[in-house]
Amino acid sequence: MSQGPAKRAKGSWSDAYIAVHGGAGVYGQVTEKGVKRVLREACSRALGAISEADDILLDEDTSPALTMVETATTVLEDDPHLNAGYGSNLTLDGTVECDAAIMSGKGQKFGSVGSVSDVKNPVTLARAILDYSSQQDKLGRVPPLTLVSNGASSFARRLPNYPSNGADSSRLKPQLTQPASLISPTAKAQWEKWKSRLDDPNYHPPPLSLDLTSLTPQSLPSPSIHSPSFSYFPSRSPPASPSPETPRSPFSFSYPLSTPVYGESSEGSRSSSSLRDAQDTVGAVAWHPKDGAAASVSSGGILLKLPGRVGEAAVYGAGCWAQHQDASGDVTRGASVACSASGTGEYIIRSSLARVVGERVLQGMTLPPRAVTNESTETISAGSNDEADEDDDDDAEDGDEGQGNDTHQILQTILENEFWEDFQKEGEPNPSAGVLLMTREVDEEDRVSVRLWCAFTTPTMAIAYASPNHPKPKAAILRHPDVCNSRHIADKPRIFITAIPL
Question: What phi, psi does 500 have (nearest 5°)?
Fold first, then answer.
């Protein structure tokens, strides 16, 4: 049952923005409604956490944006549809090892955990590390940014002995649990399936890249008229939208957002046709007038990963980033960004993806605006797949302002030139990355513009959001049209970028 906000308290959720993602990867229609339900629930719970009926959190919590991303991420961690917390991918040894991080743009405070097996909600422990690291040590010791494995668990057990920062009494506490309690039946089944294949000397996996030349019209889903509910930014220029009368070749179909991108089974979205389909990472971004921007990320990591492997969700600057134009000033005046990333951790770590995106977009927002034409972008929307999202198309962004154009170009440059192409040169056929980015800027006339950006190289990415203009959370599973289209094959960049004005 959704625990939405109890009331519109001034300075609380009526001024708050929250967005979440379920990861960049592969989502099928079998569990699409379940994934979107939990994403909306995460937004509702995040807003509820800062507007309780007794006003305790409103009075004591000095970091409501942090509270929002933490609360939203715990909801995602508790749902078995997603690869974080309960239901995480299992290691080679069949155990759960989770990574998580959280960051505030105000003071750029950060905390993270890596390879933890006995904490119910890893992001809550990451928040505790952030809070602890914000306090002065009586012996002058430098506080940690990251704790891993047994050290992280030991810190969780010692938390009652650490001094409170004033808001701890009303916040979530890390909850230790038995490692086996984090293993879901689906995750166990997936581990058994892929572990047996790994151990089978006669099993030969298919090629990593999607060979579209082998597809036939009969093997694809039934084509539909070009759907306006997605927009796609290729590596050079956007394709023209075909009319219903436009002749189509067998490999020029366009599909609505609800089209499955790979084979599905009754086992659900975590049942993958490729081992790489189940590497998604969850996260959240938020903004509140009290503490500005905040971001979080949480992941169970790669299926069959080596025990002890730490992914991007635990690494500073890789999995999440939050920053203000003036980190020590009034967060309501200058520009701010919050970014949460998903994808293949090793590549995201090497590229410091979240930090590079956040810093470069923030820099672009603070530069003088450039002239923009409507040809620079194309109409975009989060799409609509069920009754709760039926009006999502109204949120389309036409790219008619300088910040939108600059941000789009920055995202495309980073994902195409500095991520996709660089790692393809090293032999990676399909570099996997997804970015959820919230931007807020104030112009010279004090007009505020808040946008949510989503960019990914994978077949799909699941998102949801809520804002003062959209108090009822909306969710969508964005699907890349080229998965079943021959425009990009093998080594060509496959970048999807969408923006939603909040």
Answer: -130, 120
Identify the bridge partners of residue 496 per DSSP, sorted by sequence position: 456
Strands 146-148 and 110-116: parallel
Continuous H helices in 19-119: 32-49, 56-60, 64-77
Beta strand residue intervals within 231-314, DSSP E: 282-288, 292-299
**What is the spatial distance between Cα 436 and Cα 453, in angstroms, rounded to a whole number?**
6
Segment 244-298, tens digit of pLDDT? 333 332 222 222 333 333 333 333 445 555 666 656 789 999 999 999 999 999 9
Q: Which two tokens stand for residue 186?
A: 């689906």
Q: CA torsion sign, 160 to 165 to 167 to 172? A: negative
What angle is formed at CA 65 by the lines to CA 104 and CA 126, rounded to 5 degrees? 55
Report d(CA 441, CA 258) in Å as an integer. Answer: 33
DSSP calls for 426-447: TT-SS--EEEEEEEEEE-TT--
Alpha-carbon span 496 to 461, nearest angstrom: 10
The count of residues in the chain is 502
Say what the pLDDT of residue 383 is.
38
What is residue 376's predicted lDDT score, i.e. its pLDDT?
Answer: 33
Interatomic CA distance for residues 226 and 245, integer angstroms: 11
Buried b (16+ CB within 10 A) or exposed e, 216-231: eeeebeeeeebbebbb
pLDDT of residue 369: 60
Q: How far is CA 91 from the centre of its chain?
A: 22
Residue in this structure with the two tokens 């994978």, named with its chain if needed: 458
The contacts of residue 207 (CB under 8 Å, 6+ apart) are 429
User: What pTM, to 2 d.p., does this model score?
Assistant: 0.81
The mean of the pLDDT values for the chain is 78
- Cα-based distances in Å from 88 to 129, 151, 186, 427, 462: 22, 20, 10, 28, 17
Phi and psi dihedrals of 135, rounded to 5? -100, 150
Residue spans of beta strands (DSSP E) within 26-154: 98-104, 110-116, 146-148
Q: For residue 466, give the H/E element and its range.
A: strand 460-467
Residue type, 454: C
Note the pLDDT tens digit of each residue in 376-417. Answer: 333 333 333 343 454 444 454 443 344 444 899 999 999 999
The alpha carbons of the chain give a radius of gyration, in whole angstroms, of: 22
* Cα separation, 462 vs 477, whole angstroms: 4
397, 401, 402, 403: CA torsion to nearest 10:
-50
- What are phi and psi for residue 215, nearest 5 degrees? -80, 150
Q: 292 in the Ramachandran plot: left (φ > 0), alpha (ψ -120 to 50) or beta?
A: left
